[in-house]
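fyi for ur records
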Amino acid sequence: MCGRYSLMTELAALAEELNLLVLPPRFEPRDQVTPGSGIAILIDAKRRKLEYFYWGLVPSWAKDVSIARKTFNARAETLLERASFRNAFRRRRALIPATSYYEWTSEGGTKTPYRFFLPDTKIFTFAGLWDYWMDAEGNEVYSATMITTAANEIAARVHSRMPVIIDRKDRDRWLTCDDPREVSDLLRPIAPERMTIERAEIERAPSLQGSELRLL
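which gave:
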């Protein structure tokens, strides 16, 4: 699973990388993005608008938002099998921009954080899904999940899973393809030679930050 990543860049650089046409009124670089907070996301290849959705997918049929505690990651191998993700994979795919992500090892009761990034591109995009939910009072929640796959040789040193990273040339296909089977080839680990790992110096998990929706 992946439960922490960073988006440490200026809005101008992000807009250029994603060809954004509509920018958010406020943007703050974030070193530790965690489930339960608002995450920057791109869902429409034509509008190219950067939006903020809640990290932890709440399907449209859910009784309440508590399901989001278990749905901030989605396994690539079972997207069409899991009710929480099936419809979103078919119709509501997303891109989640990032500059690195974190995983921990645990030895002798001590947890050590590691940071993964791509030296050949400062900003990259995770494969994501999104959904829309409304409560009985009409309050709307737009939420998202990050898709994971089996780890490549580099990531496997720390964890058995890693986020799916969508290459720049494949981003529009990921967002627009009508048949999910035609984008299944993108749900693979990135080539290990493109990835770098380093020990990270970070503090304990931060409290919710950024554009939090505070639903849990």
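The chain has one domain: 5-199. thats all i got for now
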